[in-house]
Backbone:
């Protein structure tokens, strides 16, 4: 399978200028294709959308037409346009009349080079240029995290106001020793949420709860900072139709950098949470993850505040990250409907009122437990294909607690975020309470401790070979 990692660049002023020139030249290629199709449309001809047809048009333009951009980089732009055009055509054919073909110009377009056209040596990357131009040598922020023989392509782009490189590698599925590979017959249910991004219920009554309160706090603090920044810069903002001053462009650039930092923090926290789930499943040889798909609630109006929570949830990205890591570990993922799982008793299968808190209590069989774990147990019973699922009676097992977003401010030393100001009222702030440890477990009597063989923090519990 293919994995992509984003690495920053350390550039001189001349190297930065050459990188922007390449992105602008790619934007010129994109604009050329739009212009050609505009003339074809006015003449009543068929638009040029096929990759081979676009490559023939590029060959007719001759060398040196698009500055230092070489033939491979220009063809990657044509491939991007062709994929966008045929994707829009397929969606319109399926009935999505609101989808439009690519007709908007872009100033900067990402450029991709494939295997054999670039060279990676340690933290030095050599990118090709047009004939007669010297190659572009750039320095990476870190060493490429993939083996050198697995790198298939690199992409130069501008993301969140920073120039960076996306490195794509082809990695094999993880291999395990005999008798330690995940068993497809061992099924675990996964319930997605906001407070707990992942609640996993596995065989034998074992459970895993990944807390996402630090992610939610990061969203709230970032929203408050954004509102405060907008109020402070409202006077210098240009009106509609004005270009804006140099001071305003600098302000917008700083805002983009802060927004990009926030996005990277959230993305890293989601990766940590998904890695915890996969590592927990690999330790218990779970080969099938049945995930409840909650995307049906996105189209239901639930008020201004709850709609904001759903917008910040990033359900699609969470599912994609979990699916990619599970595929790399050799674990199958099934998406099922999760409707009614939070209001169904996992022991007697009867409908009960959905609790307002985190504890579910059944008046029919006297079952009591965590609401998200109970929903995960019910989701596990909906595994397609007739695979064995959790037993009807849930035994007492260890519930492992983890926290996602250990890199976020305020989660390592204290609960209070360092960006928060002390209260305006006088008096003592009280004793600082330390944050809970990175790993804990519920005081449920069990015969064994699943954390006995736990790896040190920062070390993988499974390594691809």
Residues:
């Amino acid at each position: 399978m293919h994995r992509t990692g984003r690495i920053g660049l350390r550039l001189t002023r001349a190297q930065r200028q050459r990188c922007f020139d390449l992105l602008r030249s790619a934007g010129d290629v994109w604009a050329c294709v739009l212009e050609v199709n505009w003339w074809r449309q006015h003449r009543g001809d068929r638009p040029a959308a096929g990759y081979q047809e676009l490559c023939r048009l590029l060959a007719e333009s001759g060398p040196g037409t698009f500055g230092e951009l070489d033939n491979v980089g220009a063809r990657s732009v044509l491939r991007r346009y062709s994929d966008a055009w045929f994707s829009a055509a397929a969606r319109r054919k399926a009935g999505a009349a609101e989808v439009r073909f690519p007709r908007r110009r872009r100033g900067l377009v990402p450029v991709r080079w494939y295997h054999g056209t670039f060279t990676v040596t340690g933290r030095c990357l050599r990118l090709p240029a047009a004939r007669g131009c010297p190659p572009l040598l750039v320095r990476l922020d870190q060493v490429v995290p993939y083996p050198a023989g697995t790198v298939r392509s690199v992409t130069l782009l501008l993301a969140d106001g920073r120039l960076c490189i996306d490195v794509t590698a082809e990695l094999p599925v993880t291999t395990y020793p005999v008798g330690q590979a995940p068993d497809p017959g061992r099924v675990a249910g996964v319930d997605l949420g906001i407070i707990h991004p992942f609640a996993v219920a596995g065989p034998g009554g074992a459970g895993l709860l990944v807390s996402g309160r630090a992610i939610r706090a990061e969203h709230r603090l970032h929203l408050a900072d954004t509102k405060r920044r907008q109020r402070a810069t409202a006077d210098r903002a240009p009106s509609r139709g004005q270009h804006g001053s140099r001071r305003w462009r600098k302000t917008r650039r700083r805002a983009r950098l802060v927004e990009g930092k926030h996005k990277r923090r959230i993305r890293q926290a989601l990766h940590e949470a998904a890695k915890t789930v996969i590592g927990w499943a690999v330790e218990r040889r779970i080969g099938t993850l049945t995930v409840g798909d909650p995307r049906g609630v996105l189209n239901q109006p639930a008020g201004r505040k709850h709609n904001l929570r759903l917008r910040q949830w990033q359900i699609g990205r969470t599912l994609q990250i979990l699916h990619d890591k599970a595929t790399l570990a050799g674990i199958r993922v099934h998406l099922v409907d999760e409707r009614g799982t939070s209001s169904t008793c996992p022991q007697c299968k009867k409908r009960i009122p959905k609790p307002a808190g985190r504890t579910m209590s059944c008046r029919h069989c006297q079952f009591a437990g965590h609401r998200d774990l109970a929903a995960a147990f019910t989701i596990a019973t909906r595994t397609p294909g007739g695979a064995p699922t959790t037993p009807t009676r849930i035994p007492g097992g260890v519930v492992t607690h983890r926290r996602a977003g250990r890199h976020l401010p305020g989660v390592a030393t204290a609960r209070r975020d360092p960006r928060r100001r002390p209260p305006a009222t006088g008096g003592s702030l009280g004793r600082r309470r330390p944050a809970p440890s990175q790993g804990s477990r519920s005081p449920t009597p069990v015969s064994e401790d699943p954390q006995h063989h736990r790896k040190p923090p920062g070390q993988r519990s499974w390594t691809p070979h």
